[in-house]
Amino acid sequence: MFIELLFSDIKLLVLLTLANIINEEENHLLLADDSIFDDIIQMIKWANKSEGHRFDGFSVEELVSGLKGLARNDQNKNILTKKGALPLLKEIITTKYNDGEVLQATEAIRVLSFSKDNKNHIKKDENLIQLLTDLTKNTVENVANAASGILWNIKDDKEKHENVKNSPAKSTGHVMISYQWADQKKLIQISQMLSEAGYLVWMDIKDMEGSTLQAMADAVEKACVVLVCMSERYKESSNCRTEAEYAFTLKKPIIPLMMQRGYKPNGWLGMILGAKLFVDFSGKYSFDDSFKNLSRQLGRDGKIGGDADEVDGPIAVIRSVPLQAARGNGTNEWSTNDVSKWLKKIGLNSKEKLQSLTGEQLTFLKKLSNRAPEFYFSYVKTDLGLHRLDDLMKFTNAIDQI
Ligand SMILES: *[C@@H]1O[C@H](CO)[C@@H](O)[C@H](O)[C@H]1NC(C)=O
Ligand SMILES: *[C@@H]1O[C@H](CO)[C@@H](O)[C@H](O)[C@H]1NC(C)=O
Ligand SMILES: *[C@@H]1O[C@H](CO)[C@@H](O)[C@H](O)[C@H]1NC(C)=O
Protein backbone atom coordinates (compact mmCIF):
# COMPACT_ATOMS: atom_id res chain seq x y z
CA MET A 1 0.00 0.00 0.00
CA PHE A 2 2.68 2.40 1.13
CA ILE A 3 4.79 1.53 -1.87
CA GLU A 4 1.93 1.98 -4.25
CA LEU A 5 1.13 5.39 -2.90
CA LEU A 6 4.66 6.54 -3.26
CA PHE A 7 5.26 4.86 -6.45
CA SER A 8 3.80 7.23 -8.99
CA ASP A 9 5.89 10.07 -7.63
CA ILE A 10 9.06 8.07 -7.66
CA LYS A 11 8.35 6.73 -11.08
CA LEU A 12 7.96 10.23 -12.42
CA LEU A 13 11.07 11.31 -10.63
CA VAL A 14 13.12 8.50 -12.06
CA LEU A 15 11.84 9.18 -15.54
CA LEU A 16 12.59 12.84 -15.20
CA THR A 17 16.07 12.35 -13.92
CA LEU A 18 16.74 9.71 -16.52
CA ALA A 19 15.76 12.20 -19.14
CA ASN A 20 17.88 14.83 -17.41
CA ILE A 21 14.92 17.06 -17.22
CA ILE A 22 15.10 18.34 -13.70
CA ASN A 23 17.36 21.31 -13.51
CA GLU A 24 18.67 23.37 -10.67
CA GLU A 25 15.61 25.59 -10.36
CA GLU A 26 13.13 22.79 -10.41
CA ASN A 27 14.87 20.48 -8.03
CA HIS A 28 13.03 21.65 -4.96
CA LEU A 29 9.66 21.07 -6.56
CA LEU A 30 10.10 17.37 -6.72
CA LEU A 31 12.05 17.01 -3.56
CA ALA A 32 10.02 18.95 -1.10
CA ASP A 33 10.09 15.76 0.91
CA ASP A 34 13.49 14.17 1.18
CA SER A 35 12.10 10.69 1.78
CA ILE A 36 12.22 10.41 -1.99
CA PHE A 37 15.95 9.77 -1.61
CA ASP A 38 15.27 6.87 0.74
CA ASP A 39 12.77 5.54 -1.74
CA ILE A 40 15.09 5.50 -4.72
CA ILE A 41 17.80 3.83 -2.64
CA GLN A 42 15.28 1.27 -1.47
CA MET A 43 14.15 0.62 -5.02
CA ILE A 44 17.72 -0.04 -6.08
CA LYS A 45 18.10 -2.58 -3.28
CA TRP A 46 14.86 -4.30 -4.25
CA ALA A 47 15.79 -4.36 -7.88
CA ASN A 48 19.18 -5.80 -7.00
CA LYS A 49 17.49 -8.59 -5.06
CA SER A 50 15.04 -9.52 -7.76
CA GLU A 51 15.81 -11.98 -10.46
CA GLY A 52 16.09 -9.81 -13.53
CA HIS A 53 17.63 -6.98 -11.50
CA ARG A 54 14.52 -4.94 -12.01
CA PHE A 55 11.96 -3.29 -9.81
CA ASP A 56 8.65 -2.49 -11.43
CA GLY A 57 10.17 -2.28 -14.83
CA PHE A 58 13.25 -0.30 -13.88
CA SER A 59 16.60 -2.01 -13.99
CA VAL A 60 19.26 -1.37 -11.37
CA GLU A 61 21.24 0.38 -14.07
CA GLU A 62 18.38 2.76 -14.84
CA LEU A 63 17.66 3.45 -11.22
CA VAL A 64 21.30 4.20 -10.48
CA SER A 65 21.34 6.48 -13.48
CA GLY A 66 18.29 8.20 -11.96
CA LEU A 67 20.16 8.56 -8.70
CA LYS A 68 23.08 10.05 -10.60
CA GLY A 69 20.67 12.54 -12.12
CA LEU A 70 19.47 13.54 -8.67
CA ALA A 71 23.05 13.91 -7.51
CA ARG A 72 23.74 16.62 -10.06
CA ASN A 73 22.24 19.14 -7.72
CA ASP A 74 24.86 20.10 -5.16
CA GLN A 75 22.47 20.09 -2.23
CA ASN A 76 21.25 16.65 -3.12
CA LYS A 77 24.80 15.36 -3.17
CA ASN A 78 25.15 15.64 0.58
CA ILE A 79 21.65 14.38 1.29
CA LEU A 80 22.26 11.29 -0.81
CA THR A 81 25.43 10.54 1.08
CA LYS A 82 23.65 10.92 4.40
CA LYS A 83 21.08 8.44 3.14
CA GLY A 84 23.74 5.87 2.42
CA ALA A 85 24.28 6.23 -1.32
CA LEU A 86 28.04 5.70 -1.16
CA PRO A 87 28.11 2.21 0.39
CA LEU A 88 25.27 1.21 -1.91
CA LEU A 89 27.13 2.32 -5.03
CA LYS A 90 30.29 0.71 -3.81
CA GLU A 91 28.38 -2.54 -3.31
CA ILE A 92 27.02 -2.37 -6.84
CA ILE A 93 30.49 -1.91 -8.25
CA THR A 94 31.82 -4.81 -6.19
CA THR A 95 28.95 -7.10 -7.22
CA LYS A 96 29.74 -6.41 -10.88
CA TYR A 97 26.43 -7.72 -12.14
CA ASN A 98 27.12 -6.13 -15.53
CA ASP A 99 29.17 -3.34 -17.12
CA GLY A 100 26.22 -1.00 -17.28
CA GLU A 101 25.68 -1.11 -13.53
CA VAL A 102 29.36 -0.60 -12.83
CA LEU A 103 29.51 2.38 -15.17
CA GLN A 104 26.44 4.08 -13.74
CA ALA A 105 27.57 3.50 -10.16
CA THR A 106 31.07 4.81 -10.84
CA GLU A 107 29.73 7.86 -12.61
CA ALA A 108 27.28 8.46 -9.78
CA ILE A 109 30.15 8.43 -7.27
CA ARG A 110 32.01 10.84 -9.49
CA VAL A 111 29.10 13.25 -9.46
CA LEU A 112 28.86 12.93 -5.69
CA SER A 113 32.59 13.53 -5.31
CA PHE A 114 32.29 17.14 -6.40
CA SER A 115 30.99 18.02 -2.97
CA LYS A 116 33.51 18.85 -0.30
CA ASP A 117 31.87 16.72 2.37
CA ASN A 118 31.68 13.75 0.06
CA LYS A 119 35.32 14.13 -0.87
CA ASN A 120 36.22 13.56 2.75
CA HIS A 121 33.89 10.59 3.03
CA ILE A 122 35.51 8.97 0.04
CA LYS A 123 39.03 9.77 1.18
CA LYS A 124 38.45 8.02 4.47
CA ASP A 125 37.25 4.82 2.83
CA GLU A 126 40.39 2.90 1.95
CA ASN A 127 38.49 0.02 0.42
CA LEU A 128 36.69 2.35 -1.89
CA ILE A 129 39.93 4.07 -2.92
CA GLN A 130 41.45 0.69 -3.72
CA LEU A 131 38.36 -0.29 -5.69
CA LEU A 132 38.52 2.95 -7.66
CA THR A 133 42.22 2.61 -8.29
CA ASP A 134 41.55 -0.82 -9.79
CA LEU A 135 38.74 0.63 -11.88
CA THR A 136 41.10 3.14 -13.49
CA LYS A 137 42.47 0.13 -15.40
CA ASN A 138 39.02 -1.11 -16.39
CA THR A 139 38.68 -2.12 -20.02
CA VAL A 140 35.53 -0.04 -20.35
CA GLU A 141 37.03 3.35 -21.07
CA ASN A 142 34.20 5.34 -19.54
CA VAL A 143 34.48 3.41 -16.30
CA ALA A 144 38.23 4.04 -16.14
CA ASN A 145 37.66 7.69 -16.92
CA ALA A 146 35.00 8.10 -14.24
CA ALA A 147 37.19 6.38 -11.66
CA SER A 148 40.15 8.65 -12.50
CA GLY A 149 37.80 11.60 -12.23
CA ILE A 150 36.85 10.61 -8.69
CA LEU A 151 40.46 10.15 -7.63
CA TRP A 152 41.24 13.54 -9.13
CA ASN A 153 38.38 15.20 -7.29
CA ILE A 154 39.48 13.95 -3.91
CA LYS A 155 43.02 15.24 -4.30
CA ASP A 156 43.72 18.55 -2.67
CA ASP A 157 44.89 21.45 -4.79
CA LYS A 158 48.55 20.94 -4.02
CA GLU A 159 48.51 17.31 -5.08
CA LYS A 160 46.80 18.22 -8.34
CA HIS A 161 49.50 20.72 -9.05
CA GLU A 162 52.28 18.28 -8.38
CA ASN A 163 50.99 15.77 -10.85
CA VAL A 164 51.14 18.30 -13.56
CA LYS A 165 54.51 19.80 -12.81
CA ASN A 166 56.35 16.78 -14.09
CA SER A 167 54.42 16.38 -17.29
CA PRO A 168 56.10 17.37 -20.55
CA ALA A 169 55.44 20.91 -21.69
CA LYS A 170 53.30 21.29 -24.77
CA SER A 171 53.04 25.01 -25.07
CA THR A 172 52.69 27.91 -22.74
CA GLY A 173 50.34 30.81 -22.71
CA HIS A 174 47.70 29.39 -24.98
CA VAL A 175 44.02 30.17 -25.19
CA MET A 176 42.27 27.09 -23.92
CA ILE A 177 38.83 26.19 -25.19
CA SER A 178 36.84 24.30 -22.57
CA TYR A 179 33.66 22.96 -24.11
CA GLN A 180 31.09 20.25 -24.19
CA TRP A 181 31.19 17.83 -27.09
CA ALA A 182 27.87 19.00 -28.56
CA ASP A 183 29.36 22.40 -29.41
CA GLN A 184 32.48 21.07 -31.03
CA LYS A 185 31.72 22.04 -34.59
CA LYS A 186 31.24 25.71 -33.87
CA LEU A 187 34.27 25.76 -31.60
CA ILE A 188 36.56 24.20 -34.15
CA GLN A 189 35.64 27.06 -36.40
CA ILE A 190 36.35 29.58 -33.65
CA SER A 191 39.61 27.87 -32.84
CA GLN A 192 40.73 28.01 -36.46
CA MET A 193 39.88 31.66 -36.76
CA LEU A 194 41.73 32.43 -33.55
CA SER A 195 44.78 30.61 -34.86
CA GLU A 196 44.62 32.60 -38.06
CA ALA A 197 44.44 35.77 -35.99
CA GLY A 198 47.70 34.80 -34.32
CA TYR A 199 46.53 33.19 -31.11
CA LEU A 200 47.96 30.03 -29.75
CA VAL A 201 44.94 27.82 -29.18
CA TRP A 202 44.54 24.61 -27.26
CA MET A 203 41.45 22.61 -27.91
CA ASP A 204 40.86 18.95 -27.28
CA ILE A 205 39.48 17.69 -30.56
CA LYS A 206 39.03 14.12 -29.45
CA ASP A 207 35.88 13.28 -27.60
CA MET A 208 36.43 14.88 -24.21
CA GLU A 209 35.02 11.83 -22.54
CA GLY A 210 37.98 9.83 -23.73
CA SER A 211 40.74 12.28 -22.91
CA THR A 212 42.99 11.84 -19.98
CA LEU A 213 42.76 14.06 -16.98
CA GLN A 214 46.47 14.50 -17.16
CA ALA A 215 46.25 16.16 -20.57
CA MET A 216 43.41 18.33 -19.36
CA ALA A 217 45.27 19.43 -16.24
CA ASP A 218 48.36 20.17 -18.26
CA ALA A 219 46.39 22.29 -20.70
CA VAL A 220 44.72 24.28 -17.95
CA GLU A 221 48.05 24.89 -16.23
CA LYS A 222 49.61 26.32 -19.31
CA ALA A 223 46.69 28.41 -20.43
CA CYS A 224 46.81 32.17 -20.14
CA VAL A 225 43.07 32.37 -20.58
CA VAL A 226 40.31 29.78 -20.60
CA LEU A 227 37.20 30.09 -22.74
CA VAL A 228 34.40 28.41 -20.84
CA CYS A 229 31.78 27.53 -23.45
CA MET A 230 28.70 27.42 -21.35
CA SER A 231 25.46 25.58 -21.86
CA GLU A 232 23.25 23.32 -19.85
CA ARG A 233 25.16 20.32 -21.11
CA TYR A 234 28.44 21.87 -20.14
CA LYS A 235 27.16 22.30 -16.65
CA GLU A 236 25.95 18.72 -16.44
CA SER A 237 29.21 17.20 -17.65
CA SER A 238 31.59 15.93 -14.99
CA ASN A 239 34.56 16.38 -17.32
CA CYS A 240 33.68 19.98 -18.05
CA ARG A 241 33.16 20.67 -14.37
CA THR A 242 36.56 19.22 -13.49
CA GLU A 243 38.17 21.40 -16.13
CA ALA A 244 36.39 24.62 -15.24
CA GLU A 245 36.90 24.17 -11.52
CA TYR A 246 40.58 23.54 -12.02
CA ALA A 247 40.91 26.71 -14.09
CA PHE A 248 39.09 28.55 -11.34
CA THR A 249 41.32 27.06 -8.63
CA LEU A 250 44.39 28.19 -10.53
CA LYS A 251 42.82 31.64 -10.91
CA LYS A 252 43.11 31.58 -14.68
CA PRO A 253 41.33 34.42 -16.45
CA ILE A 254 38.06 33.04 -17.77
CA ILE A 255 35.98 34.34 -20.65
CA PRO A 256 32.58 32.69 -20.88
CA LEU A 257 31.15 32.00 -24.32
CA MET A 258 27.41 31.55 -24.49
CA MET A 259 26.63 28.51 -26.60
CA GLN A 260 22.97 28.01 -25.83
CA ARG A 261 20.39 30.66 -26.41
CA GLY A 262 18.92 32.12 -23.26
CA TYR A 263 21.00 29.93 -20.98
CA LYS A 264 21.63 31.28 -17.51
CA PRO A 265 24.38 29.52 -15.63
CA ASN A 266 23.48 28.44 -12.13
CA GLY A 267 24.77 26.05 -9.53
CA TRP A 268 28.53 25.50 -9.59
CA LEU A 269 28.89 27.10 -13.03
CA GLY A 270 27.06 30.24 -11.94
CA MET A 271 29.38 30.37 -8.97
CA ILE A 272 32.53 30.19 -11.10
CA LEU A 273 31.36 32.63 -13.72
CA GLY A 274 29.82 35.12 -11.31
CA ALA A 275 29.00 38.32 -13.14
CA LYS A 276 31.67 37.92 -15.82
CA LEU A 277 31.04 39.37 -19.23
CA PHE A 278 30.30 36.80 -21.86
CA VAL A 279 30.50 36.70 -25.62
CA ASP A 280 27.36 35.38 -27.22
CA PHE A 281 27.84 32.56 -29.73
CA SER A 282 24.38 31.13 -29.26
CA GLY A 283 23.32 32.24 -32.70
CA LYS A 284 21.54 35.31 -31.42
CA TYR A 285 24.08 37.52 -33.19
CA SER A 286 26.02 37.05 -36.38
CA PHE A 287 29.05 34.84 -36.01
CA ASP A 288 31.38 37.53 -37.29
CA ASP A 289 30.15 40.10 -34.79
CA SER A 290 30.55 37.67 -31.95
CA PHE A 291 33.98 36.73 -33.14
CA LYS A 292 35.02 40.37 -33.25
CA ASN A 293 33.90 40.78 -29.70
CA LEU A 294 35.79 37.71 -28.65
CA SER A 295 39.04 38.92 -30.21
CA ARG A 296 38.54 42.19 -28.46
CA GLN A 297 38.02 40.47 -25.13
CA LEU A 298 41.04 38.27 -25.66
CA GLY A 299 43.07 41.24 -26.71
CA ARG A 300 42.50 42.65 -23.30
CA ASP A 301 42.68 39.53 -21.21
CA GLY A 302 45.14 37.27 -22.86
CA LYS A 303 47.71 39.15 -24.83
CA ILE A 304 50.65 40.94 -23.37
CA GLY A 305 50.55 44.60 -24.23
CA GLY A 306 46.92 44.28 -25.32
CA ASP A 307 44.78 47.31 -25.71
CA ALA A 308 43.17 48.17 -22.39
CA ASP A 309 40.74 50.71 -23.82
CA GLU A 310 37.24 50.55 -22.52
CA VAL A 311 35.07 48.18 -24.46
CA ASP A 312 32.04 49.86 -25.85
CA GLY A 313 29.41 47.46 -24.72
CA PRO A 314 30.34 44.46 -26.79
CA ILE A 315 29.35 41.92 -24.28
CA ALA A 316 26.38 41.20 -22.17
CA VAL A 317 26.57 40.53 -18.46
CA ILE A 318 25.50 37.19 -17.15
CA ARG A 319 22.44 37.39 -15.09
CA SER A 320 22.61 34.58 -12.68
CA VAL A 321 19.41 34.74 -10.75
CA PRO A 322 18.89 31.03 -10.39
CA LEU A 323 15.54 30.94 -8.71
CA GLN A 324 14.00 34.01 -10.23
CA ALA A 325 14.88 32.80 -13.67
CA ALA A 326 12.34 30.02 -13.54
CA ARG A 327 9.51 32.29 -12.66
CA GLY A 328 6.76 32.96 -15.11
CA ASN A 329 4.23 35.72 -14.93
CA GLY A 330 3.39 35.56 -11.28
CA THR A 331 1.77 32.16 -11.62
CA ASN A 332 4.36 30.91 -9.19
CA GLU A 333 2.87 33.02 -6.44
CA TRP A 334 -0.70 31.87 -7.00
CA SER A 335 -2.55 30.94 -3.86
CA THR A 336 -4.88 27.94 -3.72
CA ASN A 337 -7.66 30.41 -4.19
CA ASP A 338 -6.07 31.67 -7.42
CA VAL A 339 -5.66 28.12 -8.65
CA SER A 340 -9.30 27.45 -7.81
CA LYS A 341 -10.44 30.50 -9.75
CA TRP A 342 -8.33 29.50 -12.69
CA LEU A 343 -9.74 25.97 -12.66
CA LYS A 344 -13.24 27.37 -12.58
CA LYS A 345 -12.48 29.61 -15.51
CA ILE A 346 -11.30 26.71 -17.61
CA GLY A 347 -14.10 24.47 -16.46
CA LEU A 348 -12.10 21.92 -14.54
CA ASN A 349 -13.00 22.87 -10.98
CA SER A 350 -14.72 19.56 -10.39
CA LYS A 351 -11.43 17.72 -10.60
CA GLU A 352 -10.30 17.11 -7.08
CA LYS A 353 -6.70 16.29 -7.78
CA LEU A 354 -6.22 19.52 -9.65
CA GLN A 355 -7.35 21.52 -6.63
CA SER A 356 -4.22 20.62 -4.74
CA LEU A 357 -1.86 21.95 -7.39
CA THR A 358 0.15 25.03 -6.51
CA GLY A 359 1.01 27.86 -8.86
CA GLU A 360 4.57 26.74 -8.86
CA GLN A 361 3.61 23.24 -9.92
CA LEU A 362 1.47 24.63 -12.71
CA THR A 363 4.44 26.60 -14.02
CA PHE A 364 6.54 23.47 -13.82
CA LEU A 365 3.93 21.42 -15.67
CA LYS A 366 3.89 24.03 -18.38
CA LYS A 367 7.60 23.65 -18.88
CA LEU A 368 7.33 19.92 -18.73
CA SER A 369 4.74 19.94 -21.48
CA ASN A 370 7.25 21.62 -23.77
CA ARG A 371 10.33 19.78 -22.80
CA ALA A 372 9.01 16.30 -22.24
CA PRO A 373 5.54 15.98 -23.68
CA GLU A 374 5.31 12.23 -23.19
CA PHE A 375 6.08 12.47 -19.48
CA TYR A 376 3.75 15.39 -19.17
CA PHE A 377 0.86 13.53 -20.73
CA SER A 378 1.40 10.39 -18.77
CA TYR A 379 1.60 12.38 -15.56
CA VAL A 380 -1.47 14.46 -16.25
CA LYS A 381 -3.44 11.42 -17.24
CA THR A 382 -2.43 9.01 -14.53
CA ASP A 383 -1.65 11.20 -11.62
CA LEU A 384 -3.95 14.13 -12.13
CA GLY A 385 -6.75 11.91 -13.34
CA LEU A 386 -7.50 13.67 -16.61
CA HIS A 387 -8.50 10.62 -18.58
CA ARG A 388 -10.87 12.23 -21.06
CA LEU A 389 -9.38 13.81 -24.13
CA ASP A 390 -11.65 16.77 -23.66
CA ASP A 391 -10.30 17.51 -20.16
CA LEU A 392 -6.75 16.89 -21.22
CA MET A 393 -7.20 19.40 -24.02
CA LYS A 394 -8.75 22.03 -21.80
CA PHE A 395 -6.04 21.69 -19.22
CA THR A 396 -3.17 21.65 -21.68
CA ASN A 397 -4.45 24.65 -23.63
CA ALA A 398 -4.95 26.59 -20.43
CA ILE A 399 -1.52 25.68 -19.15
CA ASP A 400 -0.02 26.98 -22.36
CA GLN A 401 -1.58 30.35 -21.67
CA ILE A 402 -0.19 30.93 -18.21
C1 LIG B 1 22.99 -7.18 -4.55
O1 LIG B 1 22.84 -8.58 -4.45
C2 LIG B 1 24.03 -9.29 -4.22
C3 LIG B 1 23.75 -10.78 -4.25
O2 LIG B 1 22.43 -11.10 -4.46
C4 LIG B 1 24.62 -8.89 -2.89
O3 LIG B 1 25.82 -9.58 -2.66
C5 LIG B 1 24.86 -7.39 -2.92
O4 LIG B 1 25.33 -6.97 -1.66
C6 LIG B 1 23.62 -6.63 -3.28
N1 LIG B 1 23.94 -5.24 -3.52
C7 LIG B 1 23.28 -4.25 -2.94
C8 LIG B 1 23.71 -2.88 -3.33
O5 LIG B 1 22.35 -4.39 -2.17
C1 LIG C 1 29.41 42.89 -29.97
O1 LIG C 1 29.67 44.22 -29.62
C2 LIG C 1 28.74 45.17 -30.10
C3 LIG C 1 29.16 46.56 -29.67
O2 LIG C 1 30.52 46.74 -29.75
C4 LIG C 1 27.37 44.86 -29.58
O3 LIG C 1 26.43 45.76 -30.11
C5 LIG C 1 26.98 43.46 -29.92
O4 LIG C 1 25.75 43.13 -29.33
C6 LIG C 1 28.04 42.49 -29.47
N1 LIG C 1 27.70 41.18 -29.96
C7 LIG C 1 27.88 40.07 -29.25
C8 LIG C 1 27.54 38.83 -29.94
O5 LIG C 1 28.28 40.06 -28.11
C1 LIG D 1 3.91 38.35 -18.94
O1 LIG D 1 3.12 39.49 -18.85
C2 LIG D 1 3.46 40.53 -19.73
C3 LIG D 1 2.59 41.73 -19.46
O2 LIG D 1 1.36 41.39 -18.91
C4 LIG D 1 3.31 40.02 -21.16
O3 LIG D 1 3.70 41.02 -22.07
C5 LIG D 1 4.20 38.80 -21.36
O4 LIG D 1 4.02 38.27 -22.64
C6 LIG D 1 3.87 37.74 -20.32
N1 LIG D 1 4.81 36.66 -20.42
C7 LIG D 1 4.46 35.40 -20.39
C8 LIG D 1 5.55 34.42 -20.48
O5 LIG D 1 3.30 35.03 -20.29
From TrEMBL:
Which keywords accompany this UniProt record? Signal
The record, for SUPFAM superfamilies, names: ARM repeat (SSF48371), Toll/Interleukin receptor TIR domain (SSF52200)
Q: Which InterPro entries match?
A: ARM-like, ARM-type_fold, SAM, TIR_dom, Toll_tir_struct_dom_sf
Quickly give the catalysed reaction. NAD(+) + H2O = ADP-D-ribose + nicotinamide + H(+)
E.C. number, please? 3.2.2.6
**Location of the SAM domain:** 334-402
Question: What residue stretch is flagged as signal peptide?
Answer: 1-19
Q: Which GO terms describe its molecular function?
A: NAD+ nucleosidase activity, cyclic ADP-ribose generating
**Pfam families listed in its UniProt record:** TIR_2 (PF13676)
The biological processes this protein is annotated with in GO are: signal transduction
Asked if the Swiss-Prot or TrEMBL record annotates the protein with the keyword Signal, the reply is: yes
- Which PROSITE patterns does UniProt cross-reference here? SAM_DOMAIN
Q: Does the keyword Transmembrane apply?
A: no
Q: Which domain of life is it from?
A: Eukaryota
Family, per entry:
Belongs to the SARM1 family.
- The protein's name in its UniProt record: ADP-ribosyl cyclase/cyclic ADP-ribose hydrolase
Source organism per UniProt: Patella caerulea (Rayed Mediterranean limpet)
